[in-house]
Amino acid sequence: MPDIKQTGPNPLQKYFRQPKIYLSLPSKGHWYPEGAIEMTENGELPVYAMTAKDELAFKTPDALLNGQSVVDVVKSCVPNIKDPWLMPSIDVDAILIAISIATYGEKMEIETRVPTAATMRKFDLDLRLLLDRYQGIEYENVVEIGGMKITLKPQTYREFTRTAIKTFEEQRIAETVSNSKLSDGEKLDRFSDSFNKLTQVTIDMVVHGIVQIQVDDQVVVDQNHIMEFITKGDKDFYAGITEHMEAQKKKYDVEPFKVETTAEEREAGAPESFDVPITFDQSNFFG
């Protein structure tokens, strides 16, 4: 096949993708390291529809598990985010919703089983309402515990993914051990090892989420010092940090979709209404 050389501008250029919507990030652009994002003057980032290549990325199991597919698609569809691995985890769902709207429209079809009625129902979820909800949420990154002022930051997408993978791997090991023919003593040792590793994963997540600890006129930013304090300090401090982090995380959870049942479904034993959880699993969220 002869080499095809481009001579001059591509006459198809005017048919290239154009931004479909503009997104205000839940983080407002905070917590991105220098060079990880290019903010616009009004704080709204252009969002493009997915390409065919982007859609295929969400059908690759390994890339879904390690987060690479999300990173590749975000880089393609929200080019102002230069390094999606470093985006705060509180931005991820909003970005995926925006990409879905840009690609497929504002409605997403949900299919669910009606409790006890053994029937399936389909519903349209308005993604624009979900996206608008994120605009009013504020991440409170400062908390005071025991006279100390702690400044926090959300996990990056890289940290979030690593934590999820480590947790999944340890849970899988525990399940394998449970079903193995090892002696009870050996199983206990293996379970103890997995538990300790999961505990360390949680502690690492907390430490990485702390930007600094201020007490009196001293400000501690050294991660090693913070790690030592978390592992040797009062448990009430650790509990206070984790409770605050969990409270901030829950702010970004999407409330279940409430469904009213029909008379026929109620006659079949279904309740008058039921909740359908809304999750943004990349393996099915993008069709």
Cα separation of the termini: 36 Å
Order of helices and strands: EEHHHHEEHEEHHEEHHEHEH
Residue runs with pLDDT of under 50 for 5 or more positions:
none
Broad structural category? alpha+beta
Number of strand segments? 10
Overall mean confidence score, pLDDT: 86
The value of Rg in angstroms is 23 Å
Note the overall shape.
globular
List keywords for this structure.
45% helix, alpha+beta, 287 residues, two-stranded antiparallel sheet, 17% strand, 11 helices, globular
Describe this structure in words.
The chain has 287 residues and is an alpha+beta fold. It is built from 11 helices and 10 strands. The strands form 4 sheets. It has a 4-stranded antiparallel beta sheet. Helix 4 runs antiparallel to helix 5 and helix 7 (184-208) packs across helix 8. The longest helix is centred in the C-terminal third of the chain and has 25 residues, at 184-208.
Summarize the structure.
The chain is an alpha+beta fold and 287 residues long.
List the helices and strands and how they pair.
Elements (H helix, E strand, L loop, with lengths): L20 E4 L19 E4 L4 H6 L3 H6 L1 H10 L11 H16 L2 E8 L4 E8 H8 L7 E4 L2 E5 L4 H22 L5 H25 L1 E6 L2 E3 L2 H10 L2 H17 L5 E4 L2 H5 L5 E4 L5 H4 L2
Antiparallel strand pairs: 1-2, 3-4, 5-6, 6-7, 7-8, 9-10
Helix pairs in contact: 4-5, 6-7, 7-8
